[in-house]
UniProtKB/TrEMBL annotation:
<dbReference type="InterPro" id="IPR006059">
    <property type="entry name" value="SBP"/>
</dbReference>
<dbReference type="InterPro" id="IPR050490">
    <property type="entry name" value="Bact_solute-bd_prot1"/>
</dbReference>
<protein>
    <submittedName>
        <fullName>Extracellular solute-binding protein</fullName>
    </submittedName>
</protein>
<dbReference type="Pfam" id="PF01547">
    <property type="entry name" value="SBP_bac_1"/>
</dbReference>
Amino acid sequence: MAMTNRLTRGTGPLAAVGLLALTACDGGDDNSPNAWVLNGGVWPVVEEDFDAWGEENPDQAFSVDSFANDVYKERIRTAVGSGEAPTLIVGWTGGTLLEYIDGDYVLDITDAVSGLQERLIPSVADNGIIDGATYAVPMNNVQPVILYFNQELFDEVGAEVPSDWDELLEVVEVFNDADIYPFALAGGSVWPMLMWSAYLTDRIGGPEAFEAVVAGEPDAWSHPAIIEAMERIQQLVEMEAFDPNFAAVVADQNEDAHMVADGHAAMVLQGSWVYSRLLEEQPDFVASGNLGFAPFPEIPGGQGDPASVVGNPANFWSVSADASEEEQDAALGYLSEHLFNDEFVGRMIETGNIPPLEGMDDQIAESEDSEFLGYVYDSVREAPNFQLSWDQAVDPSQEQALLENLDLVFQGNISPEEFAERMNETQSGA
């Protein structure tokens, strides 16, 4: 991956945002390493792993602060830009990691994590490698986006889970006739809408369509596959494929997945992290055997491979360049000596999460959740392409415009062509 849009330290967008007041812990002035993590899913297991590291290394124990997903994304940019980042920075790689590298906000950790890299699935690990140097390493579960469904509802209406677009449209009509929402959608968080646009674009035009956007090619957003993806999204909205109140549903509390578990919606397109949250929050539903999962439907005549996936290869750790030498030493020690230790890996699998490691087949087969975990593991290893979530893949200067304009597409307030025109304007200014 080539780095683009070089920034000057102190003048880039992160530096500007750093002028805002911080509302969370600082970068560790007392030379005590710290990390910010997210809520739910596998994250409590990550916090437990820090506790274990601290017991073994009391002089390098981490303080840990936990945030909801959307809150974290707001605060981390302020913290990094102001030089007050946590010692270990959670990220999604993509355009934001490039910005961190361009601004010298994170360390080159190539030598320290060479042993860890040998254990990782290459297609996942490669997301943290820029121009041959490692700036981020995966730190939790692989996270492809999956089509979840409630099998009981499908049985109730006598329908099959759709494998292609035509079948999906038929199923939408069947569930609407039965007064069941075909799909839940956390539109209030907006980013779940990206899952629809990414999968549709990939299935229609293959990975090349969006790769042109990431590469910054002029008018890349006007690719026919992207235009058609937006047209199909609006077709679904007009057919009432989604809960009509989707704009009020948010993902931080797993509300969209709960709609499926509670029988209010038949399907939801969401990340693999939803499974571990349902294990915790809806154990009876998971135990009932009614939670199903499938790939995103194929588009007849599309150029994309139906085995390709979109989502997040994982979350990644980077080490703050603004941390003290003592903090950096602790972070590098944790990454090189402790990350993905046997106990951590075991706890991940117990909670329904797949670590991005080679050779996990036997452990997965022994798990109570082997069906789901095996499905996720195989889909990642066998995917010909794993498209990083659009909001993380694009240049950070485009992220807000992307979310705002995609929301307008779903609301029917702009046309697909207007979406492309607006996004092309951000591309030229990126």
